[in-house]
Design brief:
Largest sheet: 8 strands, mixed
Structural class: alpha/beta
CATH architecture of the domain at 3-247: 3-Layer(aba) Sandwich
Strand order of the largest sheet: 3-6-2-1-9-11-12-10
């Protein structure tokens, strides 16, 4: 008997009909002789609606109470799904994150898992029940408070359970048939990837691919959990995320193209070009807790001795970083700040970049031919990212996808529409 952990996102449990469809899939897995643990997200747009409701009450919701509020979405889903499975003649038990033993640090809104003790889940399995766990949430022992793992945290919940229970596979169900060469909502001719390495998947997730959360991919790689990304709307084989390709499998030059509209750009203008100023600037940024993505420093102007430093970061962190930099403007000595939210990041990812020359030239030529200007460039061993105007990102993704020969023979199927 195999142990399978299944995760269903918000689009998969968006309404009663969808919940019954998910329940039938779970029951079919159980009838095939498997033990089943399920991690479930809130229904549809419930989390967004709860966030909006909180902001109708106050512009600055208390973080502790915000976590208490947001975790109710997954509790609704888990209870309804347990009812659905029971209506189909199988035993099911639902558990909150804390009941399932998801221990986290005390960071409200973005807690990290520090341990998993799934005793009640194991007890339910030993008694023949399907265990259903509310995703996205945990419990801090020191504060005794409920916490949330951040958006996309249900993926991480599923992987953490799979690791703790030594599951045979962790199946991530979404509204597309697997991991595609690009977001099929943006690039209709994208095609499904049968096998992708965890290294490539990490780069794609970091670059904006929404099908898997980056923390879940990293957790799976670190703990040796096999991921299988599948559609909850069709009974098809999806994408397997492996630690490495087999000996006889050559890595594709480009595995996929990702786009991201969630970042903004800050330019610190007129920075004295002397040792230590970049360190001062990014120490201030680090103090806000913001994550920096791309950084570009211009050559200083000889007559002034001043330079400009640009960097990208999540839009949600933009205003607090601007405020922190303005507070230290006099001591750092820069002239002014420029803030730009109208940017889009495009990334191409592929393990074959290591051994194939000309990828950069092919990328930049495709963008040039399409009249798309590049504002920033960043690279890793298996990724090239560029920043362009936000309104050009979709066209850029289509052009680059075609240029690297990734277009499929027919348009991809999207069953719901959110990508999770």
């Amino acid at each position: 008997m195999s142990l399978i952990v299944q995760k269903f996102g918000g689009s998969s449990v968006a309404d009663a009909e969808s919940i019954m469809r998910v329940a039938r899939r779970i029951v079919a897995t159980r009838d095939a002789g498997n033990d089943v643990v399920v991690a479930v997200s809130a229904m549809g747009d419930t989390t967004d609606e709860l966030v909006d409701l909180a902001h109708q009450i106050t512009d600055s919701p208390d973080p502790r109470e915000m976590d208490m509020l947001l975790t109710t979405g997954e509790r609704i889903s888990m209870a309804l799904l347990a009812m659905a499975i029971k209506s189909l003649g199988h035993e099911a038990r639902s558990f909150t994150g804390s009941q399932a033993g998801m221990m986290t640090d005390a960071q409200h809104g973005a807690a990290r898992i520090v341990g998993v003790t799934p005793e009640r889940v194991q007890e339910a399995l030993s008694e023949g029940a399907v265990a259903i766990v509310a995703g996205f949430q945990g419990f801090n022992r020191d504060s005794r408070d409920i916490t949330t793992l951040g958006r996309g945290g249900s993926d991480t919940t599923a992987v953490a359970l799979a690791a703790a229970l030594n599951a045979d596979v962790c199946e991530i169900y979404t509204d597309v048939d697997g991991v595609f060469t690009a977001d099929p909502r943006v690039v209709p001719m994208a095609h499904k990837i049968d096998v992708v390495t965890s290294e490539e998947m990490l780069e794609l997730a970091a670059a904006g691919a929404k099908v898997l959360h980056i923390r879940a991919v990293e957790y799976a790689r670190r703990h040796g959990v096999t991921l299988h990304v599948r559609s909850s709307f069709a009974d098809k084989e999806g994408t397997i995320v492996v630690s490495a390709r087999g000996e006889n499998m050559e890595e594709p030059i480009i595995t996929g193209v990702a786009g991201d509209l969630s970042e903004a750009k800050i330019t610190v203008i007129g920075v004295p070009d002397i040792p230590g100023k970049a360190a001062e600037i990014f120490t201030i940024v680090a103090g806000t807790g913001a994550n920096i993505d791309m950084i570009v420093q211009n050559v200083s102007v000889e007559t002034t001795g001043l330079t400009d430093i640009s960097f990208t970061l999540p839009k949600t962190d933009g205003q607090k970083v601007l405020a922190a930099l303005r507070e230290k403007q006099e001591s750092v000595g820069f002239v002014e700040l420029a803030y730009d939210e109208n940017i889009g990041k495009l990334s191409v990812v592929g393990g074959g970049m290591r051994t194939n020359a000309g990828v950069s030239a092919q990328l930049f030529t495709a963008l040039y031919d399409a009249g798309i200007n590049i504002e920033m460039i960043s690279t890793s061993e298996i990724r090239i990212s560029i920043v362009t105007r936000a309104e050009l990102l979709k066209d850029a993704m289509k052009v680059v996808h075609t240029a690297f020969g990734l277009d499929g023979d027919s348009e991809a199927v999207v069953y719901a529409g959110t990508g999770r």
